[in-house]
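A favour, since you know our structure tokens better than I do. What I am after is a single protein written out in full by you. Could you add the entry underneath, on a fresh line?


***
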Amino acid sequence: MGYNVAIDGPAGAGKSTIAKLVAKEKGYIYVDTGAMYRGLAIHFLKKGIDPEDRDAVAEACQDAEVTIGYENGIQQIYLNGENVTGMLRTEEVGNMASKTSAIPQVREKLLDLQRTLAEEKDVIMDGRDIGTNILPHADVKIYLTASVETRANRRYNELREKGEECDLEEIARDIKERDERDMTRKIAPLKMADDAVLVDSSGMTIPEVVGRICSLCRES
């Protein structure tokens, strides 16, 4: 049985960045569940599917195969055999993933793969409902968050560094809307597990957050 660490939290809280660093520090396998949903989102976008058309989304799941691979210890996402890792972090893909991830057929498509990985390996997994739904018996549960202002600024700076034009107010508005969707969806909404530890990274450096989470995990 693997040792499991679950990190949940809203969009832009730094879950992926922190989870990768903790995985490296502790020797765990990092599983980015959000990237898996984004992989399916790319499939829906390629097919030109309206995310509000739940029947079309459910049907499209039937001819999509999302798998995980690792290159130099870094997770790669494959969609029907194609490495789509480089396409995952666009706003278009993120919004499609947020809108479709609540659809039961989408969640079922990925749930078995996620749980099998956790049973076989020492993993750290981040997403919206890891500690509450996917790995309810995780050894350590973290709810990582930050203020909307902090998260919007982080995303703005990230996009600017990539040379992309963006608007800070629009990013903040998008984050608020995504929070609302994730927290109010009927299936596996974003919420803090009763036995999770709250970590607000608004006033913390990345090393401080990593150190805090590592301190909660068993000794290597």
About this structure: The longest strand covers residues 66-71. The two ends are 16 Å apart (CA to CA). The chain is about 50% helix and 15% strand.
